[in-house]
Specification:
This protein is of the alpha+beta class and 439 residues long. 48% of the residues lie in helices and 9% in strands.
């Protein structure tokens, strides 16, 4: 179904935060723009923190405080009407401000931004916790920021130039490629059916020429480049970088959730050749990971990011339910005094706390094949309880919870949408069935 945006939604979406708000390091006259890559966006009242040496979670707290301040000052006013999506123009403005802040880093040199320092534990912790904070205000914007940061990491690893807003298409047409992908990433012999499955999952130029091949990805309206992984017949990784004008694209209508990042269907135009980027073997020398494809690291980060965004959604749903239960009176007492409501609220708190602990554990694991089995197993078993917990928080509102302007309904839809991305729980379990813990 299509959704109409009311005049009140449009008015609310165009409101801005108070002009008094500004990131502290900008207000203090620190450099911005081209020099932002060298900045640790730490408040000037605290000692400078360098992501290059971060080793403990307390050292990222100043950076997370800046992310929280940014969300409350800039994102929250734009997302105050849950029945309306944040308009594309406002998402573009937020992206520019996140870049100035240092949260996004579209340069060749790693700084202190999202997914910049994935080779150290604190860098991974910062990325996971920052996405959860943003998702508490708007999950679509959180996924958008993750997407931009993931593309920046990919281009950095491939030693490619940053030509504009880039999106990475993690998967092709169908599902997760399940056991076929597991065997491929572990470098094992492929079965007969694996080749056909992987040709559907990854872009295959020969197949595209012979069939009506098309892929999908999610992005805001302001993307310019699409980065696509592909495999040669000898299992050599190639990356193809397409400019938007070289693609046939169609925005699919009526997304179930994450309305700020609609789904797009794409295929190259006839006769168009992409910029080819040879796969540079990704190896994390600091943590001793064996040489493996870059795709393994990006696929791993995608799974962790989806869990982090889901955590932020459940936290916000729980907070809304707690707030409502504290003021709503039914049966002569507030809802929070009813045992049935307490059980619903307790499940929301328990699931959120368990998920936060699971993500903290995952942050301690290096990226790539060595940890991918643990990451996939965590998401395979976490996402269903997360969706159920959000639905429990909706039940606290009774029938009112299904009205879109209460905010709780949107969190449930966003969580259900996240569950479908980059492998549903059943697909992830099939992936794990083919995964060898000691390849």
């Amino acid at each position: 179904m299509t959704r109409r945006t009311s005049r009140s939604c449009q008015n609310a979406a165009t409101r801005r935060a108070s002009p008094r708000f500004a990131p502290r390091f900008i207000a203090a006259g620190m450099p911005t723009g081209k020099n932002v890559a060298a900045i640790d966006f730490t408040p000037p009242t605290r000692p400078a923190v360098s992501m290059k040496t971060l080793a403990a979670a307390p050292e990222i707290e100043p950076l997370l405080e800046e992310v929280t301040r940014f969300c409350r000052g800039r994102l929250a006013p734009l997302a105050e009407r849950p029945e309306c999506r944040v308009p594309p123009a406002d998402v573009a403005a937020l992206t520019a401000e996140a870049t100035e802040l240092g949260l996004l880093n579209p340069t060749r040199e790693p700084a202190a931004g999202l997914w910049d320092r994935v080779d150290v534990v604190a860098g991974r912790q910062f990325g996971i916790r920052a996405l959860a904070i943003v998702a508490e205000h708007n999950a679509g914007v959180a996924y958008h920021l993750h997407q931009r940061a993931l593309a920046a990491l990919a281009l950095r690893r491939l030693h490619a130039d940053f030509a504009g807003a880039t999106v990475v298409a993690i998967q092709g047409r169908f599902g997760l490629a399940r056991g076929s992908l597991a065997r491929l990433l572990q470098g094992r012999d492929l079965l007969t059916d694996d080749v056909a499955t992987l040709r559907d999952y990854f872009f295959d130029r020969d197949q595209q020429a012979a069939e009506a091949w098309s892929g999908i990805f999610m992005a805001t309206d302001h993307w310019r480049w699409l980065l696509v992984p592909s495999l040669t017949e000898d299992r050599h990784w190639r990356w193809r970088l397409y400019e938007r004008g070289d693609l046939e694209v169609a925005q699919l209508p009526a997304s179930h959730g994450l309305e700020e990042v609609p789904c797009w269907q794409w295929r190259p135009k006839v006769g168009i050749e992409a910029t080819l980027l040879d796969e540079l073997v990704y190896a994390d020398a600091t943590e001793g990971a064996r040489a493996e494809p870059l795709y393994a690291a990006l696929f791993d980060l995608e799974q962790r990011a989806l869990l982090a965004i889901a955590l932020g959604l459940v936290r916000r749903a729980h907070a809304l339910a707690v707030e409502y239960a504290a003021i709503r009176v039914q049966g002569g007492k507030r809802l929070q005094a009813h045992p049935a409501v307490q059980a619903l609220l307790g499940r929301g708190a328990a699931v959120a706390n368990a998920q936060a602990l699971a993500l903290s554990r995952l942050a301690a694991l290096p990226l790539g094949v060595a940890s991918l089995g643990d990451v996939i197993a965590t998401r395979a078993e976490a996402h269903d309880p997360l969706c159920a917990a959000a639905n429990d928080q909706l039940q606290v509102f009774g029938g009112l919870g299904y009205i879109r302007d209460t905010g709780i309904e949107r969190r449930v839809r966003d969580l259900n949408h996240l569950r479908q991305l980059c492998g549903t729980p059943p697909e992830l379990r099939i992936f794990l069935a083919a995964w060898k813990t000691s390849p």
